[in-house]
Design brief:
alpha/beta, Rossmann fold, 11 helices
Amino acid sequence: MAIVDVRNLVKRYGDVLALDHFNLQIEQGEVFGLLGPNGSGKTTTINCILQLLTYDKGEIELFGQPMKPTSYDLKRRIGVVPQDVAVFDELNVRENIDYFCGLYVTDATERRALVDEAIAFVGLEDYAKFRPKKLSGGLKRRLNIACGIAHKPELIFFDEPTVAVDPQSRNSILEGIQRLNAEGATVVYTSHYMEEVEQICSRIMIMDRGESLACGTKDDLVRMVSTGEKVEIEAPDLPDGTLEALGGLPFVRRFSHDGTTIHLLCDNGPHNLANILGVLQERAVVFGRVYSEPPTLNDVFLEITGKELRD
């Protein structure tokens, strides 16, 4: 049973079709990456799932139950970390986390323990009495996360949580998300940073114009596109016929030599590099650095959507 089940979701803003019979299923325990260029429908999808937007058509179930605006029992099981930091400047770190946790947990003793745990989880112990304006951008992001997870949600939506933070804070946030997942939370993650999605997401959907264009693991997505493996080998001196022999390999699409380096574009395959090096060794070619790059998630995204992710 999917923990998130969206079927034939349609959402219009006037004459603009934001979601076009959109479908989404997320299984319990996944870290699910939702990718798309600006205006693709990601935020609209999340807001519809959370019942923050009305929609024209479709069905949404969470935890196997219909999700409605009054489904407060389901909403207590959900955490949201929005892209924009949403905390109160008048409250300090502890008070902010306590306020948001209090929306779900009324018992003061239980809530105190949860707040302490959330503060420790995001590493804000030394800043518990600081107000947000005294925090750096990265620390504010950590506070934002603590406010969204203090009540121990089973399903957590992270909407670009690492925007404009330093590398150290980014690593801390990503490691925290992985820990939450290891502790049992299902995560829906949106980002404009492909390397983050590759690092933490078990399955990925690419969407645009309100439709799902592709969905699967990173390896599944790579197999869907024609972008091939790039191989570069430093080899200044090539015996006659070597380049032609490499070009004759059945998986090699393009080949060239610029005087110092062999450049090859290959079909995707598990033994490309071994076969290429075999040809060089047979011809006693002396070579140096070897570089192989399979298609990246960015290559997949660009081929499927025709756009850069940050468009």
